Structures are given as C-alpha cells and as structure tokens.
Amino acid sequence: YQRRVHGGIYGLIVAVIISSGIKPEGYSNFAGYVHFGAGLAAGMASLAAGLAIGVVGDSSVRAYGKQDKIFVAMILMLIFAEALGLYGLIISLLMNNVAQKVTAKCKEE
Questions:
Q1: Rounded distance, CA 56 to CA 91, Å?
Q2: CA distances (Å), 58 to each of 11, 63, 76, in order?
Q3: Taking the CA of residue 29 as centre, how many other CA atoms within 13 Å lie in the half-sphere pointing to its CB?
Q4: 23-27, 47-51, 54-58, 72-76: least confident range
C-alpha cells in the first residue's frame, strides 16, 4: 500500500510547484502547454509505475510463496518499478523550469 501512495505525492508536488509559478500577467500559451505536459508526464509516469508495481508485486508474492530465496530480487524489482514514477517527477520539474524561463523572458519584453 505504501508504494502506491508515492505516485499521488509526486502529482501533488508537481501541482503545487506549477501553481506557484502561474501569474496572471506575462503568462504565455507556451508556458501553459509546457505546464500541461509536465502534469501529464508526472501522471503517466505514476500510472506506469503503479501498473509495474502491481504486476511485479503479484508475480513476486506468488513466487515467494513457493521459494523464500526470491525476497531480495522481489524488493529490487519493486524499487526499479517505483523509479518510473520518480523519473516522471524529475522530467516534470525540468519542464517547469523551462516554462518559468519563458515566462521570465515574456515579462522582460
């Protein structure tokens, strides 16, 4: 259960960071689309991580029931599946930085 919560927390982090950077003046359409893409990147990556954790967790628990030696491999596979959501968070933060730079340039002009 605890692993599935990370995707929601990543989405909340991205939403708070994006919403703090939105100002009514000097906000271009490009920045809006980049922010939209950042939210999609975090959401889709979290969805993929949740799916991977579900598939790996199901098969790992069944295998662990048959053989105890698979525990370490099971944990490693779950960690790598969770990394998908973290990659989405990183990409979203990078996209937000691009949108902030564009918004700053629009304010200068």
A1: 24
A2: 25, 9, 14
A3: 0
A4: 23-27
* Side chain identity, residue 42: A
Q: What is the pLDDT of residue 28?
A: 85
What phi, psi does 22 have (nearest 5°)? Answer: -90, 120
Q: Among 49, 12, 18, which residue's Cα sits nearest to residue 36?
A: 18
Nearest one of 14, 7, 83 to 47, comparing CA atoms: 7
How many Å is the maximal CA-CA distance in the chain? 66
Give which of 5, 10, 22, 6 is closest to 96, Cα–Cα. 22
Do 82 and 2 contact (CB within 8 A), yes or no? no
CB atoms within 10 A of CB 99: 23
Structure-block tokens of residue 17: 């960071």
Element (H, E) at 106: helix 71-108
Q: In the structure, what pLDDT confidence band is assigned to residue 109 with cuts at 50, 70 and 90?
A: low
- Which of 40, 38, 39, 53 has its CA nearest to residue 84? 53
